[in-house]
Every structure is written in structure tokens, then in C-alpha cells.
Amino acid sequence: MASLGDLLSQSSKQSLFYTIQPGGVFRMKLTTKEGIIPKEKDDDYRIKYFIVIGKTKDKKVIGFVVINSCINQNLSIQLQQLHYPLRVAKYSFLDHDSYVCCGELKEITISHFSERTCQSCGIIDKEDLEYITEAVITSPIETKKHLRKFGLI
């Protein structure tokens, strides 16, 4: 399958950033560059669903949170409590009930986003997005500087 970047002209790549909005859900290969640890030792990526939460003013970086199948029990209790449930009954792109990890806002550059094979899956509704964003803002590992970078505060 071709990457999004392969299918777009240079001007389309530049305007891609404007079409990616908070609440958008995507599925793609994410790497350690985005803070994702591969499951298998020999892998260099992991296919994940994620939700766009914000974008930088310079239009070069997207802030996102990942959707996980379950809550990581290796996290502190405080971070475990920052998981927001998504139900397959409401979000049909999911294979099963899942959890948004709101403890850490991750980043991907628009160039990496456009170079990889990516699937647009849907949109998180406004109320859920507000709860998710608020949870990210209250995370003990997020700094005001990082949150400002994506226009969250």
C-alpha cells in the first residue's frame, strides 16, 4: 500500500496539515520517534490507533494520544487513572472496547505523517474529545510548555 505522501503533490502535502483536526482518529505505523515501543524485539514500529489533540502554530507537528486495548498495569496508579474508555458500540472503527491513554501527549511531524501508510478511521465526538483533552492537561508528566505547544492551554 502506498503512503499518503506518495499519493500527494507537494502543495497537497502542505495543505494536509489544515485538514487534520483535533478529534481525528488515524491508524498507522508509529515508531520510537513518536514514543511508541514496538511489541516484538526485532520490530521497529507498532501499528496503533491515535487521536489528534492539537497542532503547533508552525504547522509542522501534530500532538496525539494513543488508543490501547487495555490499561498498562506497569504505569503508576495516577497514570492508569488517566485512561478514557472508548466503546466499540459508539466507535465502530474499533475492534473491541479500548482505552485512550491520556497521560502522555505524543508528537508526530507532518512530514512523518505524510510519508507513512495511514488510515483515517473517524472522528471522536466533541464531548469525548473534551474529556480526553482535559485529562491530558491534568497529567502529572505533561508540562505547561508542552501543552502550550499544541494550543491546549
Would you give an account of this structure?
- This protein is of the alpha+beta class and 153 residues long.
- Strands 1, 2, 3, 4, 5, 6 and 7 form a 7-stranded antiparallel β-sheet that branches.
- It is 28% helix and 28% strand.
- It has helices spanning 4-7, 10-19, 77-80, 110-115, 126-138, 144-149; strands at residues 24-30, 46-55, 61-68, 83-86, 98-101, 106-109, 118-123.
- Strand 2 and strand 3 (61-68) form a beta hairpin.
- The protein starts with a helix and ends with a helix.
- The longest helix is centred in the last third of the chain and has 13 residues, at 126-138.
- The radius of gyration is 15 Å and the shape is globular.
Weakly predicted, low-confidence segments: none
Largest sheet: 7 strands, antiparallel
**C-alpha geometry:** globular
Radius of gyration (Å): 15 Å
Write the H/E string, N to C.
Answer: HHEEEHEEEHEHH
Number of helices in the DSSP assignment = 6
Averaging pLDDT over every residue, what do you get?
Answer: 89
Binned, the helix content reads: 25-40%
Structural class: alpha+beta
Total number of beta strands: 7
Determine the N-to-C terminus distance: 38 Å
β-sheet strand percentage: 25-35%
Sum up the structure in keywords.
153 residues; alpha+beta; 7-stranded antiparallel sheet; 6 helices; 28% strand; globular
